[in-house]
TrEMBL record:
Highest rank taxon of the organism: Bacteria
Domain HTH arsR-type: from-to ranges: 13-108
GO terms of molecular function: DNA binding; DNA-binding transcription factor activity
Transcription found in the keyword field: yes
Keywords: DNA-binding, Transcription, Transcription regulation
Biological source species: Rhizocola hellebori
InterPro entries given in the database record: ArsR-like_HTH (IPR011991), HTH_ArsR_DNA-bd_dom (IPR001845), HTH_MetalResp_TranReg (IPR051081), WH-like_DNA-bd_sf (IPR036388), WH_DNA-bd_sf (IPR036390)
Protein name as it appears in the record: Transcriptional regulator
UniProt cross-references to SUPFAM superfamilies, sorted A to Z: Winged helix' DNA-binding domain (SSF46785)
Length: 191
């Protein structure tokens, strides 16, 4: 089962554009908060507008984000948004490109570090800060015996589940919904 609207990255230049902490943060903000201008993103990231503009251009040149001209109030204002869908890559796609292999591995490590930081920050909060979210937050793991193909199929199924929740129509029920990061890793390991 192939995930709908998933862009497979096989170009090391595009991967290199992703492998920058501020660019990853800009992508996350656009993904969570929706379209934005360089000035609003600079405010959210405590960065200079010129710095944010530079990184937005790099992301735009790599087609990782796109302009949203219909949101501009005048010709000088530039809005940016995430294209629909998600991104996917595999280090094996860069087996014939040593530089691409290094970039892919560096990016995977950077993302893992980011995920662990978010997780540590959550668990570092006291019970009052966690509030009623403590009842929904979860950690789950399971040792499985799989072939490489079965692990790939599991990856596709988990990705489809994430996509379904990400595309769902948000109910207009008056409840406050906060951004929630859900991540999963699956790899061969020894207990």
């Amino acid at each position: 089962m192939a995930q709908q609207n998933t862009r497979k990255i096989t170009d090391s230049g595009t991967l290199a554009a992703l492998a920058h902490p501020l660019r990853r943060r800009l992508l996350d903000i656009l993904r969570v908060d929706g379209p934005a201008t360089a000035s609003s993103l600079a405010e959210k990231t405590d960065q200079a507008i010129a710095n944010v503009s530079h990184h937005l251009r790099v992301l735009g040149t790599s087609n990782l984000i796109e302009e949203a001209p219909e949101l501009a109030r005048d010709k000088r204002e530039r809005w940016w948004r995430m294209p629909t869908g998600s991104l996917r890559w595999s280090t094996s796609d860069f087996d014939d490109d040593p530089a691409g292999q290094v970039i892919a591995e560096t990016l995977q490590q950077m993302l893992l570090d980011q995920h662990i930081k978010i997780l540590r920050d959550w668990y570092g909060k006291d019970r009052d800060e966690q509030g009623e979210w403590v009842n929904g937050a979860f950690s789950s793991d399971k040792w499985l015996r799989l072939t490489p193909q079965e692990l790939f199929e599991l990856s596709e199924q988990v990705g489809e589940l994430f996509q379904r929740w990400g595309r769902r129509e948000i109910p207009d029920d008056g409840q406050q919904r906060e951004p929630v990061l859900v991540f999963a890793y699956g790899m061969p390991a020894k207990p």
